[in-house]
Specification:
mainly alpha; 4 helices; 3 strands
């Protein structure tokens, strides 16, 4: 009888142990979307790093483990959204560029005309200098030619700078015109990447 009771107790203990013991393989595996409690806590699983944080792409999200790749993708998505938002006033920026471009173009036209006039004048003065025999006129023409040569040098430099400015403004305007479409594409691409890298179980 005693032996029978002992065996019954032993069996009960083994059954209880079987029910309460949790095999290591049954423990919750850390991956994207698995709940966590300590914000900014980090861990590594099979060589992959995870951080306890909220997925800002999910409305009313709670703390879950997110892989560092997922977090980087979310950061890229947020940056793409910000860039698109910052460019909301494309019309205002385009108008500002147009005004700058008009000013620079007008200045370039005026400078080019002045340069052409100076070149024509210096050619005329040199021709007159070569044929005149009047010492006073020769001196005056020489001084005029010297000033014209200096003016041509200054005007040439100014025209070059204005030409570069006009080209730069035109490039910026072209880039601005294509920016909304490009930024929208960036948002779509970064969102798709984030959704892929933040998928539950990854």
């Amino acid at each position: 009888m005693i032996r029978k009771v002992t065996l019954s107790l032993l069996a009960a203990v083994l059954v209880a142990g079987t029910v309460t013991a949790v095999p290591a393989s049954a423990a919750t595996k850390i991956s994207n979307g698995v709940a966590c409690s300590k914000v900014n806590a980090t861990t590594k699983v099979s060589g992959y790093s995870y951080k306890c944080a909220k997925n800002t792409m999910v409305k009313n999200s709670k703390l879950t483990w997110l892989s560092v790749e997922c977090l980087a993708a979310i950061k890229s998505y947020d940056a793409a959204i910000k860039a698109k938002t910052d460019l909301a006033n494309v019309a205002d920026q385009t108008a500002s560029l147009d005004a700058d471009l008009a000013t620079a173009t007008a200045a370039l036209t005026k400078t080019s005309a002045a340069l052409d006039a100076a070149k024509a004048q210096i050619t005329k003065s040199r021709t007159t200098l070569n044929v005149t025999t009047n010492p006073t006129e020769k001196l005056a023409l020489s001084n005029a030619i010297s000033k014209l040569a200096n003016a041509i040098l200054i005007l040439t430099t100014s025209r070059s700078k204005l030409d570069s400015q006009v080209k730069d403004l035109m490039s910026k305007k072209a880039l601005l015109a294509s920016a909304p479409e490009q930024l929208a594409s960036n948002v779509t691409d970064s969102q798709a990447s984030a959704n892929l890298l933040c998928a539950k179980g990854f």
